[in-house]
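In the design runs reported in the main text, the only information available to the sequence generator was the tokenized backbone. The following block is the verbatim input for one such run; it is reproduced so that readers can re-run the procedure and compare outputs position by position.
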């Protein structure tokens, strides 16, 4: 078996909280147990929301937890030319189309479809705008005019291009057991692969970088499980190897809500300022604390 490669890939658009700590610790511990490598990747394609102090916070918080990682760290903002080149190959294959819709227009087009119009796994209505059907000459003119546009995957064309059925491997780190899961990327509709402000989206960059970095085990939160279906399709389109996946349960706060930056969960740096030790932070993660040989599952 090749040496396992794990990664923790935060977006520096907020302070890390205990949920991030749990995910990072689990990845690092699994790498340690399996004689593997542990990488850190900074997912900073969103120039509006990414901030240097949050990135510095990632390094400080992870070091405080006792983690170390390989250097140099891949920062996605430094790899835009590579993402743009990949996007070009999909364009050349006729699998992308430019979408000029503003957010408000996209919401209106979807609303016009009615309440039953399907939503993607993130809860956003599937794209319902007219851009897919624009004549090539109009597309070219609007692009030449500098009109802002995203690049969407023509899902039906992509599915026809990727030999199916598509599956991904769900890996249980406790037992080592694996099971094949059928990928249903169609649930994402015409997903954005190139943003208006960057020649990539999360989905494209994460797939290209996992492959570039030789990641063999993607261990991330259950909130990203549905995204794996789309990632599997992109791997097939690019002919990339597919890692195995483990989507760990999300930590819940005292009210049973998932910990998230938006819920103002206590940042690790605040815990630190309050005098909490790394050992106590690990203990607060509770069942998730990954001691050698311990289960990564709640006992109850
Ligand atoms: N950057 C993503 C996040 O912070 C995680 C990406 C991944 O693990 O695939 O939610």
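Verbatim output:
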């Amino acid at each position: 078996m090749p040496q396992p490669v794990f990664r923790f890939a935060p977006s520096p658009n907020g302070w890390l909280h205990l949920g991030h700590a749990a995910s990072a610790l689990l990845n690092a511990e699994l790498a340690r147990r399996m004689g593997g490598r542990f990488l850190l990747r900074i997912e900073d394609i969103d120039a509006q929301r990414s901030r240097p102090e949050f990135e510095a916070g990632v390094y400080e918080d992870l070091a405080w937890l006792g983690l170390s990682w390989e250097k140099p760290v891949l920062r996605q903002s430094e790899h835009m030319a590579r993402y743009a080149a990949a996007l070009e190959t999909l364009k050349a294959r006729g699998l992308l189309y430019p979408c000029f819709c503003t957010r408000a227009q996209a919401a209106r087009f979807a609303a016009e479809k009615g309440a039953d119009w399907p939503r993607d796994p993130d809860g956003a209505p599937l794209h319902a705008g007219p851009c897919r059907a624009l004549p090539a000459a109009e597309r070219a003119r609007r692009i030449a005019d500098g009109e802002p546009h995203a690049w969407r995957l023509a899902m039906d064309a992509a599915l026809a291009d990727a030999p199916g059925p598509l599956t991904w491997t769900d890996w249980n780190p406790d037992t080592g057991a694996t099971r094949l899961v059928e990928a249903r990327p169609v649930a994402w509709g015409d997903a954005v692969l190139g943003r208006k402000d960057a020649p990539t989206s999360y989905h494209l960059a994460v797939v290209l970088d996992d492959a570039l970095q030789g990641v063999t085990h993607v261990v991330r939160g259950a909130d990203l499980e549905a995204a794996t279906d789309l990632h599997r399709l992109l791997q097939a389109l690019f002919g990339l190897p597919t890692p195995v996946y483990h989507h760990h349960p999300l930590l819940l706060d005292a009210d049973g809500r998932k910990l998230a930056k938006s819920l103002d969960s206590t940042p690790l740096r605040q815990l630190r300022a309050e005098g909490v030790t790394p050992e106590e932070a690990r203990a607060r993660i509770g069942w998730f604390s990954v001691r050698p040989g311990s289960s990564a599952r709640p006992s109850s």
